[in-house]
Specification:
By secondary structure, the protein is an alpha+beta fold. It has 9 helices and 12 strands. The chain has helices at residues 3-27, 34-41, 45-55, 94-109, 116-130, 147-158, 257-260, 282-290, 302-326; strands at 32-33, 70-74, 77-82, 160-168, 173-187, 190-197, 202-207, 211-220, 245-250, 263-269, 272-278, 296-300. It has a 5-stranded antiparallel sheet with strand order 7-6-5-4-8. A hairpin with a 2-residue loop joins strand 10 (263-269) and strand 11.
């Protein structure tokens, strides 16, 4: 099936399900305004009117005047006057019931969910209503849903201060910190604990998989009144003018950088692009550039270009040294 045909098939299936649920919805709300119904159903008024027009020609076999779904309009209000037997919403299929249970369990396990009890109550109702539709037990584990994440979540819920050993890859260092947790959250498939860091005297985000050790202290977590949670609507990394700005010349194979990282400037330069972006520090930028393919060059700053050049030369020298030794102290004789 071609992609346009597949999309058309999905759209037809979605519309059929919507039409079958539309009749019992309208039966329960006689005289409802079309605008209100469209808002409840998550469609535009135009789409809802098109659905209602289609319902005029739907009904029981025979398809005579007494067999088709009928409705009455009073201005912008609609009332179903004959339902042709479609008086109850669709029942969940086994796949739909399972998908709903999995989604609710994922939500219940997501760090930072404010009202986990409400989610669990809804899950229990769905499972009871689904009955045999969800016959097998389902276990849901999120990415990073490890013993460390569960340990951190429990400590946060108990409101305890924590002593952690934390690895910071940007500086390639491990530090000991005492933190007062604010919340657990999931961003981009990774678990974080957001906390007041007593060492930095600021709110910081700590990735759970970078916490090497954690000790729950006897004292309660005390968050200063000036502490504010981060706005993570655009992701964890928030570029700011005080961070270093680097410019790279990249080839076609590295253009993914512009989609994965927030860039301040992207300019075409023939087959190559000039890309400028903010980084946490030049140490991270050096490792980032060295991890890319050969079709990348540092344009600015000069300090970063020199660091990349020096580390690349040192790596090449380290690889070359054993070869020179095997060849007898660096003398290479042509063969043949």
């Amino acid at each position: 099936m071609t992609r346009p045909a597949a999309r058309a098939g999905r759209a037809s299936a979605d519309r059929l399900a919507r039409l079958l649920n539309l009749v019992p919805y309208l039966l329960a709300r006689p005289g409802i305004e079309i605008a209100e119904a469209a808002g409840d159903l998550g469609v535009t008024e135009r789409q809802l009117r098109e659905d209602l027009e289609l319902l005029w020609v739907c009904g029981l076999p025979g398809y005579g005047p007494g067999d088709l779904i009928d409705m009455a309009f009073d201005g912008d209000r609609v009332t179903i006057t004959y339902d042709a037997g479609i008086d109850r919403p669709l029942r969940l299929t086994p796949d739909e019931a399972l998908a709903l249970v999995v989604a609710l369990r994922m939500l219940a396990e997501t760090p930072g969910v404010a009202n986990r009890e409400a989610v669990e109550r809804a899950l229990a109702k769905i499972e009871n209503a689904a009955g045999d539709l969800v016959a097998a037990p389902v276990e849901v584990r999120l990415p990073g849903d490890s013993a460390r994440v569960r340990e951190l979540r429990a400590a946060v819920e108990r409101g305890r201060a924590l002593r952690i050993t934390y690895y910071t890859p940007a500086r390639d260092e491990t530090t000991e910190r005492t933190i007062d947790p604010l919340r657990m959250l999931m961003v981009g498939g990774r678990a974080y604990v957001e906390a007041w860091c007593r060492r930095a005297e600021a709110v910081r985000l700590f990735r759970a998989d970078r916490i090497d050790a954690v000790t729950e202290l006897d004292e309660r977590a005390v968050v200063p009144p000036q502490a504010r949670p981060h706005d993570l609507s655009d992701g964890v990394f928030r570029p700011s003018p005080d961070l270093p700005l680097i410019t790279l010349r990249i080839g076609r194979g590295e253009r993914w950088i512009t989609e994965y990282y927030p860039c301040e400037r992207v300019e075409a330069d023939g087959e190559q692009w000039l890309v400028s972006l903010r980084v946490t520090d030049l140490g991270w930028a050096r490792r980032f550039v060295l991890g890319l393919g050969p079709d990348v060059a540092v344009v600015a700053p000069a300090e970063l270009a020199e660091q990349v050049r020096a580390q690349a030369a040192a790596a090449l020298d380290a690889y070359a040294t054993p070869a020179r030794r095997r060849l007898g102290g660096g003398h290479c004789h042509p063969v043949g």
